[in-house]
């Protein structure tokens, strides 16, 4: 064989090897595509199964009542933490069916909140014999559970260690710790011993409360990312975070749309402590979820109360718009419009009112007035002259003591010559009578219509008196 033949066969072997490599890569790519399709199908099946199981759980869910505390186990009261891993796995998945999942998660969040309330009541029933005042000092569920467990763990320990544990583990403030330490010296019954079974129930109840709150936080985070698709106008008005808290608390956008605006401010409000004031500096008592929205917090403190009332009214309208909106139309124009209107109203209130120009009084003329006489001018001046009795009151008779009276304000007023002048005006003395016409220039003036009405009233009264005399 020649060298040319050898080169030809070598090139042929290389071409065959490269074609086999390309075929092998194509086969690998096809296998990867099939694996991805298979994984996606399995993912969809798992997601749909998880949603289906969650729906069945919510349908069959019944809240346990505290019928018998002595023998009841906390795990029998709360069932949601038993499915914590499945719920967290469902929240970590991606699904296309967003609307039914959001409604199920909102309903689950409501049930979780109810279980937290029931567990809180359960712990108060178990611990009231030992520290009854604690439920008034710490009204929130998780801090109450933490304080109970700390008191049981450090029973008989030093107060210094107890104070540090309350601050670090329970997250209490210095004021709460001070009030609690003072209450432990008076209301805490150290001689009362809790049974070991009840003590274990208290720790289990705290773990369940922590698990329920952890599930609620994950649900709120999940809903916060996807709530703009379900309630765009509410999100545009109060931010997605506040909207997710509202929807999770009430159970859905339909339920939120049915709540009147006057009740929206109290949603998410913390219970007041027995030693705290119920009103903040701005005069707001209902510090719920809506009060924490940026639209209110960005304004000065003196406008918070008015802003809260306006935002609640618009949130009620926005929820109704979102509840009646189709799934394929997600428009937040109403929410942006109402937020702009509220901002403009507050801006007008903050603007200082323009100072009006005070018009000065005209300079008085020193020259004598043009009108000094004439019949009309004399008649005009007679309206302001003193009456005869007032003139007599300003005079005092020589050599005689003036008579005085005391008015309703305790001031002594002199009568002057009014008594003697009265007889002179009337033309009467001690034994005579007479009538003299007094000054009527400054008397009250009546219009013609008023005079006519008075005359008609007098005639009617006279006719009535005459009719009575005839009957008699």
UniProtKB/TrEMBL annotation:
Key words of the record: Nucleus, Ribonucleoprotein
Composition-biased stretches (Acidic residues): 1-14
Protein's GO biological process: spliceosomal tri-snRNP complex assembly
Superkingdom, natural source: Eukaryota
Compartments where located: Nucleus
UniProt entry tagged with the keyword Nucleus: yes
Region Disordered: start-end pairs: 1-36
GO cellular component, one term: U4/U6 x U5 tri-snRNP complex
Nop domain: residues covered: 230-351
Protein name, per record: Nop domain-containing protein
Protein source organism: Zygotorulaspora mrakii
């Amino acid at each position: 064989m020649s060298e040319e033949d050898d080169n030809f066969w070598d090139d042929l072997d290389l071409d065959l090897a490269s074609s086999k490599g390309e075929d092998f890569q194509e086969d690998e790519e096809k296998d990867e595509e099939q694996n991805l399709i298979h994984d996606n199908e399995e993912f969809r099946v798992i997601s749909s199964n998880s949603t289906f199981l969650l729906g069945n759980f919510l349908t069959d869910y019944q809240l346990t009542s505290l019928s018998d505390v002595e023998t009841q186990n906390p795990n029998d009261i709360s069932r949601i933490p038993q499915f914590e891993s499945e719920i967290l796995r469902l929240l970590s998945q991606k699904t296309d069916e967003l609307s039914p999942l959001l409604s199920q998660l909102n309903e689950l969040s409501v049930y979780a909140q109810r279980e937290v309330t029931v567990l809180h009541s359960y712990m108060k029933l178990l611990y009231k014999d030992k520290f009854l005042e604690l439920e008034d000092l710490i009204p929130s569920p998780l801090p109450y559970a933490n304080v109970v467990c700390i008191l049981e763990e450090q029973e008989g320990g030093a107060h210094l260690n107890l104070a540090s544990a309350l601050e670090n583990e329970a997250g209490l403030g210095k004021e709460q710790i001070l009030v609690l330490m003072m209450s432990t010296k008076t209301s805490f019954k150290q001689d009362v011993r809790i049974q070991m079974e009840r003590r274990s129930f208290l720790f289990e109840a705290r773990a369940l409360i922590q698990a329920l709150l952890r599930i609620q936080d994950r649900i709120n985070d999940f809903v916060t990312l996807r709530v703009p698709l379900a309630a765009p106008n509410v999100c545009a008005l109060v931010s997605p975070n506040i909207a997710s808290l509202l929807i999770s608390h009430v159970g859905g956008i339909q339920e939120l749309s049915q709540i009147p605006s006057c009740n929206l401010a109290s949603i998410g409000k913390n219970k007041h402590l027995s030693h705290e004031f119920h009103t903040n500096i701005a005069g707001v008592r209902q510090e719920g979820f809506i009060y924490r929205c940026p639209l209110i917090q960005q304004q000065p403190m003196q406008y918070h109360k008015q802003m809260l009332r306006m935002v609640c009214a618009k949130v009620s309208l926005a929820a109704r718009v979102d509840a009646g909106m189709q799934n394929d139309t997600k428009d937040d124009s109403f929410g942006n419009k109402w937020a702009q209107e509220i901002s403009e109203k507050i801006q007008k209130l903050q603007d200082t009112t323009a100072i009006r120009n005070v018009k000065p009084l005209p300079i008085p003329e020193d020259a004598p007035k043009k009108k000094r006489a004439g019949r009309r001018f004399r008649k005009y001046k007679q309206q302001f002259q003193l009456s005869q009795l007032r003139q007599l009151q300003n005079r005092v008779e020589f050599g005689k003591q003036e008579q005085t009276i005391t008015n309703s304000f305790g001031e002594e007023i002199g009568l002057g010559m009014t008594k003697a002048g009265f007889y002179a005006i009337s033309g009467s003395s001690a034994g005579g009578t007479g009538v003299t016409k007094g000054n009527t220039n400054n008397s009250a003036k009546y219009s013609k219509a008023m005079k006519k009405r008075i005359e008609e009233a007098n005639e009617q009264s006279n006719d009535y008196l005459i009719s009575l005399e005839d009957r008699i």
